[in-house]
């Protein structure tokens, strides 16, 4: 499986303040966020960010509020200008773009979905969905037709002539997604797209996104503060804290091998049985033991396996992928994997 | 002899000041000189221009300031007129045209036409009935002609206010520097007593020219539409603007497709205020020959004709209600369709 890098972010820095260049030198010399604030009155937004965003995958950038995740995503289409660093999209340096090239990038290569929907309140739902094409100056009829197609695709029929304020939050965000899809861009930036929605609707929207993604294979950069959401969606997970990357990698990997107390605290609360997959905790051996009780798929989660085994920890399963055995899952190992790495002393949750 | 002599003597400036000529001694000075009293500390006058002039004739008197201003204005007046006259000439044409149109069209065409405009703007039969009753009442008491003159002036001036004010407001919303520069001017225009506008204008233009009062009305009434256009555009949801940027809208697309439509309720509120303020000013402008109901008010004051003044005042109130209700109804329609 060749993984083509679509967007490459290299050594990206963002400092807010009157004289970011001066502050940048201090930061590169090792000054931290609080010192920079106290001594120079500059806010360190992002600090040495290096991420490769793979084509056709969902990259989730997760962090708490103030971690710089929304700032980071806005650097990709230069809604915010970086202080230092490079953003390379399809081999081209976005930061070297002039106004026209940048507009071209925003019009046809990257679309965006916003936390607060940001639909045009004076246009109808259909016109909103067709906005990217209308902005590009394409034929209005065709644009509306395309908009209609995508509205139906995200499950909104019969609301075309309503105005956004007449729709519920979930429906408005569907319009937001339809609008992003109408632009037919390879890259979709989603800035806390589901954070403003009710939990049930949020789950619906996540399912919708995964279903669309199965078919469309867009390069999606998804921002969230919700760990469950990020584990559900992510092919590649980037965890951000105070403007720097704490850890990035495959979500299962981060879950099993957190490299920072901050992340340990973060993941201590989640339902590991639902998130962890068999392939991450199995013993990768081709040999079959004697007490095999059955076969499981490598991508099954542990929860389903527990249900299958009826809670019996004395048995083993053969783990299959594409009809071949890729390993053995001992139920004892499974139970061990469910114990979270202990919360860090003095960490976010250490004082409880 | 004067209170502040000691300053100039002490500084050795007596020579510069020149000899005092006591030719224009006032009665007060004479009395003081006779009694030989010196001014007590309690009565020390403020060292104003006039008082310093008493001590040192080289310092100008205050009347020199106002006189100088006047002379300066008169000096630039002619060259100013060369520039301003052609620029403002269309205003005279507009006003003359509108006035003659409103007066020559017979009432049985004019009144239905106005009611049709009211209906188009408000889509409300109740409002049309209200406006009809007001206009018919004014016509019934023989104030139709004057009311139409007032309306004609307001239409022209408000239209020009919008024409100039909205672009100025848009420009202000885009540049903080421009906003900082223009807001004091707007404050001044709004607080300057309306009569004060008229003074330099009388010097610049002939009192028989309609543009004289046209300019006064526009200067006075343009402020709210500029302010509210600026405010309206600045208040447009930042998230929506960000979305417009993210989808690659040009500045032009953003302005006409997003900012102006979303600022429209505020802009319309500004237009409403502008119309009301031009109505207020058109009454004052009757001092400089603006025709209309204001002339009757003025007659009421000059000749102490109580009834004439009160009835024409009532006519102005009725016009104000008509204009306010119609623009507010139009604003309400913009609001409900815009959200």
**Total number of strands of chain A:** 13
Described by strand count, sense and barrel closure, the largest sheet of chain A is: 6 strands, mixed
Structure classification of chain B: mainly alpha
Q: Would you list the SSEs of chain B in sequence order as H and E?
A: HHHHHHHHHHHHHHH
Question: Can you tell me about this structure?
Answer:
The complex is a heterodimer of chains A (352) and B (339). Chain A is α/β, with parallel strands linked by helices and 352 residues long. Chain A contains 15 helices and 13 strands. In chain A, the strands form three sheets. A six-stranded mixed sheet of chain A has the order 6-7-8-3-9-10, with helices on both faces. In chain A, strands 2-1-4-5 form a four-stranded antiparallel sheet, sandwiched between helices. In chain A, a hairpin with a 2-residue loop joins β9 and β10. In chain A, α5 packs across α6, α5 packs parallel to α7 and α6 crosses α7. By secondary structure, chain B is mainly α. Chain B has 15 helices and no strands. The N and C termini of chain B lie far apart (76 Å). Chains A and B meet through α4, β6 and α5 of A and α12 and α13 of B.
List the helices and strands and how they pair.
The complex is a heterodimer of chains A (352) and B (339).
Chain A: E1 5-16, H1 20-28, H2 33-40, E2 43-54, E3 58-62, H3 69-76, E4 84-89, E5 92-93, H4 99-109, E6 110-113, H5 125-136, H6 140-153, H7 169-182, E7 187-191, H8 199-216, E8 219-224, H9 227-233, E9 236-241, E10 244-249, H10 251-256, H11 261-267, H12 272-275, H13 278-281, E11 292-297, H14 302-309, E12 316-321, E13 324-330, H15 331-337
Parallel strand pairs in A: 3-8, 3-9, 6-7, 7-8, 11-12
Antiparallel strand pairs in A: 1-2, 1-4, 4-5, 9-10, 12-13
Chain B: H1 5-10, H2 14-17, H3 27-35, H4 49-55, H5 62-104, H6 107-122, H7 125-140, H8 144-174, H9 176-191, H10 194-204, H11 210-234, H12 238-246, H13 251-284, H14 293-302, H15 306-338
């Amino acid at each position: 499986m060749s993984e083509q890098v679509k967007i490459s972010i290299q050594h990206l820095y963002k400092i807010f303040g009157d004289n970011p260049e001066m502050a940048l030198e201090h930061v590169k010399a090792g000054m931290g966020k609080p010192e920079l604030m106290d001594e120079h009155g500059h806010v360190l937004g992002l600090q040495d960010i290096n991420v490769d965003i793979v084509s056709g995958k969902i990259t989730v950038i997760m962090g708490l509020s103030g971690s710089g995740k929304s700032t980071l995503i806005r650097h990709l289409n230069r809604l915010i200008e970086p202080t230092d660093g490079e953003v390379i999209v399809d081999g081209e340096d976005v930061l070297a773009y002039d106004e026209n090239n940048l507009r071209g990038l925003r019009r046809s290569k990257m679309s965006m979905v916003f936390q607060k929907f940001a639909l045009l309140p004076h246009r109808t739902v259909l016109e909103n969905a067709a906005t990217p094409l209308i902005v590009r100056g394409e034929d209005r009829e065709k644009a509306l037709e395309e908009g209609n197609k995508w509205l139906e695709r995200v499950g909104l029929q019969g609301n075309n002539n309503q105005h956004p304020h007449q729709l519920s939050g979930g429906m408005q965000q569907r319009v937001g997604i339809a609008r992003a899809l109408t632009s037919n861009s390879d890259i979709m930036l989603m800035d806390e797209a589901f954070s403003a929605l009710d939990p049930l609707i949020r789950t619906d929207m996540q399912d919708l996104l995964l279903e669309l993604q199965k078919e469309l294979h867009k390069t999606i950069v998804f921002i969230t503060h919700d760990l469950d959401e990020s584990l559900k969606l992510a092919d590649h997970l980037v965890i951000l804290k105070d403007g720097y990357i704490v850890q990035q990698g495959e979500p299962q990997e981060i879950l099993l091998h957190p490299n920072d107390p901050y992340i340990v605290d973060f993941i201590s609360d989640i339902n590991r049985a639902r998130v962890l997959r068999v392939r991450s905790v199995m013993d990768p051996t081709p040999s079959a033991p004697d007490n095999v009780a059955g076969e499981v798929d490598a991508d099954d989660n542990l929860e389903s396996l527990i249900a299958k085994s009826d809670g019996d920890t004395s048995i083993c399963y053969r783990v299959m992928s594409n009809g071949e055995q890729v390993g053995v899952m001992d139920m004892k190992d499974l139970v061990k994997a469910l114990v979270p790495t202990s919360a860090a002393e003095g960490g976010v949750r250490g004082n409880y | 002899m004067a209170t502040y002599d000691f300053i100039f003597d002490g500084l050795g400036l007596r020579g510069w000041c020149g000899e005092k000529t006591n030719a224009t001694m006032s009665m007060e000075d004479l009395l003081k000189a006779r009694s030989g009293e010196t001014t007590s500390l309690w009565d020390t006058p403020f060292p104003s221009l006039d008082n310093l002039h008493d001590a040192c004739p080289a310092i100008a008197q205050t009347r020199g300031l106002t006189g100088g201003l006047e002379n300066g204005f008169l000096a630039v007046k002619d060259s100013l007129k060369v520039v301003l006259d052609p620029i403002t000439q269309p205003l005279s044409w507009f006003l003359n045209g509108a006035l003659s149109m409103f007066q020559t069209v017979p009432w049985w065409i004019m009144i239905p036409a106005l009611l049709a405009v009211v209906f188009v703007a408000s889509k409300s039969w109740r409002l049309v009935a209200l406006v009809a009753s007001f206009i018919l009442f004014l016509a019934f008491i023989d104030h139709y002609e004057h009311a139409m003159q007032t309306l004609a002036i307001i239409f022209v001036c408000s239209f020009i206010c919008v024409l100039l004010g909205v672009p100025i407001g848009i420009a202000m919303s885009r540049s903080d520097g421009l906003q900082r520069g223009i807001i004091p001017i707007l404050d001044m225009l709004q607080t300057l007593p309306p009569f004060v506008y008229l003074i330099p204008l009388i010097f610049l233009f002939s009192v028989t020219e309609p543009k004289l009062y046209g300019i006064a009305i526009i200067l006075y009434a343009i402020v709210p539409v500029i302010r509210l256009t600026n405010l309206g555009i600045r208040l447009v949801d930042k998230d929506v603007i960000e979305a417009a940027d993210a989808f690659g809208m040009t500045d032009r697309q953003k302005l006409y497709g997003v900012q102006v439509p979303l600022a429209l309720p505020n802009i319309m509120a500004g237009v409403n205020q502008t119309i009301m303020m031009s109505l207020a000013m058109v009454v004052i402008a009757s001092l400089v020959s603006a025709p209309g109901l204001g002339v009757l008010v003025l007659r009421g004051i000059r000749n102490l004709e109580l009834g004439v003044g009160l009835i024409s005042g009532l006519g102005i109130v009725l016009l104000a209600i008509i204009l306010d209700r119609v623009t507010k109804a139009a604003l309400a329609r913009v609001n409900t369709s815009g959200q």
